[in-house]
Task: structure prediction
Amino acid sequence: MRCRVTIDGRIPAEIGLGASELKQAAEKFAYMSSKRIGVPFREVSVILQDDAASEIAHNSVMGVEGATDVITQGFDAMPGEEPGVYGELYVNCDRAISAAPRRRGWSPAKELLLYVAHGMDHLSGADDHSPEDYARMRRRELGWIADIERDAAKEKGSAMTRDELASMIDHTFLKPAGEQDAIERLCSEAEKYRFACAMVNPCEVSKAAGLLQGSSVRIGTVIGFPLGANTIKTKIYEAVLAVEDGALDIDLVVNMRQLKAAVSDKAVRSELQEDLSNFNDAVKERDQGVCTKLILECCYLTDEEKVLGCRLAKAAGFDFVKTSTGFGTGGATVHDVKLMRRTVGKKMGVKAAGGIRTLDDALKFIDAGASRLGCSAGVSIIEELA
Result:
């Protein structure tokens, strides 16, 4: 029997989660908790609070000062009610908003779901009095959230065809080493699955272009890769040669030190804007069909620097901004994709790259606003889509 869950209060817009989604997740957590202990969950109220209300509830229910993430209160069945678990969860929305940015790739919505999962776990009798108990609860709760994310991805994926998803993937081989037939295999797969692009290192562009001659699959390459520390003249020369060899997608790594300095130095900002404009103009002068993408390598940047990079790329005429090279300390995150999409608007492209290995990953970034995905796992991702 499904637990009766009620949601009391308003979910702040910053969390990005609907009441119906929260209710469905809470029902799932109640079911999993019930299954774990063999006792049915009958009725649970999820009470949404801010920091001030959480502080009051924490003192009233637990006798403890200060706000917290979630407070759990269980009740015995009333006369005439069926035996089982009844309770209330006091969930702090302010805490979810403030805590989420401290976890890489974590959203306020996911933080809020973790609080609700943790509360349901406590209602089932679990405790976190020791580090071992806390770790055990956290693993269990993250597993429940992962189940919900997989279900949501499958539901979204069912509305997308293989061809539609493939047309959003840049099938990539940018490793410094690999099997001798790696480029042949990449191009064969790109043609078979109709990927948007076969992305290779500059020295492989001519070969890939020959293998895909007559195909609808575009050839792409990376410039100033992976550090972005070449001079702009070198980058332009490298890109023009790549276009002459057959590349139609050009992914340029930004000079990160220059971008960081540009936040506070107007002269550097002007110089970087001019460099990007000159690059874009030179490449498209060689072939108007070229698609240019600026790689920001977000793992090394603050949000302010990411926003500036997006604005400069848009002003320079680039077609896309891209999250990562895949060679930095981190890859694409939902937070970065959402930030980039908000900054560039609806018309400019946003490419997520780095760490995209499953269909769940792909759909998560598309849902966040990505219009292109760069990954080497394109085949397995498409095969996941029934």
User: Anything to note?
Assistant: The two ends are 31 Å apart (CA to CA). The chain has two domains: 4-157, 162-384. The chain has a mean pLDDT of 93. The chain is about 50% helix and 15% strand.
